[in-house]
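Notes for week 9. Today we move from apo structures to complexes. The key idea is that a small molecule is not decoration. When we ask for a structure prediction with zinc ion present, the ligand SMILES becomes part of the input, just like the chain. The input block below holds both the sequence and the ligand string. Read it once before you look at the output, and try to guess where the molecule might sit.
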Amino acid sequence: MGCRARAAKAELLRVTVGSDADGHPAVVPDPEATAPGRGAHLHPTTECYELAVRRRAFARALRFAGKGPGLTSAPLAEHLGADI
Ligand SMILES: [Zn+2]
């Protein structure tokens, strides 16, 4: 996901669909890779994150088809220290 460069899973951060502080569906980091459900992997960098956002890759990779405001990736951005 993100830059699409191949990488070993150990170098990547797993993300899953969870909820943000307001209970809305959100992309959340799963650094221990223990959360249930479908996950996606990206480099734990703001560059890779921003590419994934620009490509709307999160909803696709996580097979998220919810209605309403959609999937926010703010919790992941915060985790990565991104400026979004
Ligand atoms: Zn990447």
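The longest strand covers residues 13-19.
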